[in-house]
Amino acid sequence: MKTVLVTGGAGYIGSHCCKAFAESGWSVITYDNLSRGWRDAVKWGPIVEGDISDAEAVSATLRQYRPDVVAHFAAYAYVGESVEHPGLYYRNNSFGSLVLLEEMLKADVRKLIFSSTCASYGVPVHSPIDETHPQSPINPYGWSKFIIERMVDNLSYAHGLDAVVLRYFNAAGCDADGEVGERHEPETHVIPLAIEAAVRRDRIFTVNGIDFDTRDGTAVRDYVHVTDLARAHVLAGEKLLRDKGVHVYNLGTGTGTSVKELVDAVNRASGSRLPVVYGPRRAGDPPALVAAAGKAHRELGWAPEQSGIDRIVETALAWYRRQL
Q1: Hey, is 49 helix, strand or coil?
Q2: What pLDDT is attached to residue 308?
Q3: Residues with Cβ < 8 Å from 259, sequence gap 6 or more?
Q4: Quick one: 245 and 303 in the same domain?
Q5: Are residue 94 and residue 237 in the same domain, yes or no?
Q6: Which of 78, 89, 141, 223 is catalytic?
């Protein structure tokens, strides 16, 4: 049986990917320090509780389980927090990843799926954004992931590391079966916050910025269902077992949704009208991020199937209501 070690497998995207790998016949091992993940989200195989910056623990786990592929999700992922505490992001995301990569090479585990981000592109110079678009991050979160991509390239050249780098656009939605979903403390992601405001009478949804250069003044993002993302990782794992080198793919839909359009979708799904206030832009937020994802379709055979905004909101709302 093929084995995948999933760092950050107790988190939002990581847990959905664990399910997808397990359903595709892989043996799944989760490695997570549970600082921002959830033990009850680990349902498809054992968990090793450890930090990616702990070389001894990483080494022991790699040598015990001998994974065919490491899928690396473990990272902090709040743009605003990264602006306020950049050192935290470079230490955890970038340095922690270096420790992981070095221990993989020592253990002769040389196949990596890396969870990267469209934040590495910065403000688009053209749209939609393809994989050749210049990378010029505008926040420490984006820079921390960009640095890891450079490490992967360099270690591939020097030591034969094989990798698939997946640059997500906006992961959203929840498992349709209700087995895992989106939970963050604090919650800063726009769809859960909008749903919370629609369901609970004591919450108000804040639109961060109404003066962007977009069709309605609010930020535009390319939302891709987390289940579609998870399926892309399984396809990436299969590619790594066939092909060598470093392969980079955007994961998005090619369709942008503004915050105002998202509010409309939440209103439709919830049957209510969420209260809205308007605030300033968040530091480090570009006006629009929309993917050109044709390369993933051509080379991985991947296409989003559940990523319409209404389907995304429907599954996220169902998950939220189950938690009440």
Answers
A1: strand
A2: 95
A3: 190, 207, 208, 218, 219
A4: no
A5: yes
A6: 141
β-strand partners of 268: none
Is residue 142 within 8 Å of 303, Cβ to Cβ? no
CA–CA separation, 220 and 214 (whole Å): 7
Query: Active-site residue 65, yes or no?
Result: no
Which tokens sit at 40? 């009850």
d(CA 17, CA 9): 8
Please determine, for residue 184, whether its predicted confidence score (pLDDT) is greater than 90.
no
Classify residue 44 as left (phi > 0), alpha (psi -120 to 50) or beta.
beta
pLDDT tens profile 255-298: 999 999 999 999 999 999 999 999 998 776 788 999 999 999 99
Residue with tokens 């839909």: 253
d(CA 181, CA 269): 17
Are both 75 and 216 inside the same structural domain?
Answer: no
Q: Quote the domain boundaries for residue 271.
A: 190-221+254-323
- Both tokens of residue 49? 């509780």
Per the structure, the count of domains in the chain is 2
Instruction: Work out the pLDDT band at 324, boundaries 50, 70, 90.
Output: confident
